[in-house]
């Protein structure tokens, strides 16, 4: 039984969410997938299912323990080796989720007196990592979205008052999850180098999608293997689950010893690893998948009059929460699984549809969506 003061409080909070039109609910998938992060259409590929089954038969359904106990199987090491080779780094460390990676690797690096600088539109997991670092005595600077002048001046101002041994970390999404726009990594790395700051990029929405070999935004922007910390996820384009940080051996060893989300959590299970290994193989071997996802997003953006972006995320800005929800519902009624995103996931007054494209979609489906959007947005 929930104690009655708790019951009262929870009910009041639920009513408040309802009255603001901000109650979240889980709606099962229905209609054409225009909102998942399955950019390469690999999630349901029978080859991933077979690789998962084979891994379970060979190594078990579960890992049984954390990596530092008995949880490591050969597939963890194979996957880390494949990811490091793909991303062009010396080493790689798996994490169980992207959320766990960001939320715990930031406080593992940034402590008392240090500074962490984060783009204003970074993912919630980076925000929480910064909060943890702040609780540990670090300075947190939020710089305006993509504004490297703001970042540079914050770094300089902080450095002027920081103790000599203090270190700085800069964190950014490579492609931003709710806007689909991209960071300028060469310019960002230049600012970081000038201020001796370590750069962490989150390639959750770019791994498998961008660059000559699908390795991500760093590869697409000519910085393959040159960013010190490249985090990414296995549950989006790669069709499986989990996350990784690609870096050098010194950083990997530090994270393995200090990132609490790595140390105190049961290792990724073998079927997930088997599917991820196959997902990486297919992402590299079948470039038509990323080409199609990006071409469809480009077509949709052009129809909406938006500038091109290197991503498969296309926001349709609406503004008011209720309007975004209504528009999503109308599209759902027509068989398009499009979802509204509202504050606090996005800033106040910027409710939107977050449309994603993927290799599983046909051109005709995007044309039909464009027609429907044209009709509904006119009203
Ligand atoms: N970073 C970004 C940019 C994301 O969009 C997400 C997932 N939505 C995450 C991290 C978290 O990854 P995971 O789903 O593996 O926890």
UniProtKB/TrEMBL annotation:
<dbReference type="InterPro" id="IPR015421">
    <property type="entry name" value="PyrdxlP-dep_Trfase_major"/>
</dbReference>
<protein>
    <recommendedName>
        <fullName>8-amino-7-oxononanoate synthase</fullName>
        <ecNumber>2.3.1.47</ecNumber>
    </recommendedName>
</protein>
<keyword id="KW-0808">Transferase</keyword>
<keyword id="KW-0663">Pyridoxal phosphate</keyword>
<dbReference type="InterPro" id="IPR004839">
    <property type="entry name" value="Aminotransferase_I/II_large"/>
</dbReference>
<comment type="similarity">
    <text>Belongs to the class-II pyridoxal-phosphate-dependent aminotransferase family. BioF subfamily.</text>
</comment>
<comment type="pathway">
    <text>Cofactor biosynthesis; biotin biosynthesis.</text>
</comment>
<comment type="subunit">
    <text>Homodimer.</text>
</comment>
<dbReference type="InterPro" id="IPR015422">
    <property type="entry name" value="PyrdxlP-dep_Trfase_small"/>
</dbReference>
<feature type="compositionally biased region" description="Basic and acidic residues">
    <location>
        <begin position="14"/>
        <end position="27"/>
    </location>
</feature>
<dbReference type="InterPro" id="IPR050087">
    <property type="entry name" value="AON_synthase_class-II"/>
</dbReference>
<dbReference type="Pfam" id="PF00155">
    <property type="entry name" value="Aminotran_1_2"/>
</dbReference>
<keyword id="KW-0093">Biotin biosynthesis</keyword>
<dbReference type="InterPro" id="IPR001917">
    <property type="entry name" value="Aminotrans_II_pyridoxalP_BS"/>
</dbReference>
<feature type="region of interest" description="Disordered">
    <location>
        <begin position="1"/>
        <end position="28"/>
    </location>
</feature>
<feature type="compositionally biased region" description="Polar residues">
    <location>
        <begin position="1"/>
        <end position="13"/>
    </location>
</feature>
<feature type="domain" description="Aminotransferase class I/classII large">
    <location>
        <begin position="32"/>
        <end position="373"/>
    </location>
</feature>
<dbReference type="InterPro" id="IPR015424">
    <property type="entry name" value="PyrdxlP-dep_Trfase"/>
</dbReference>
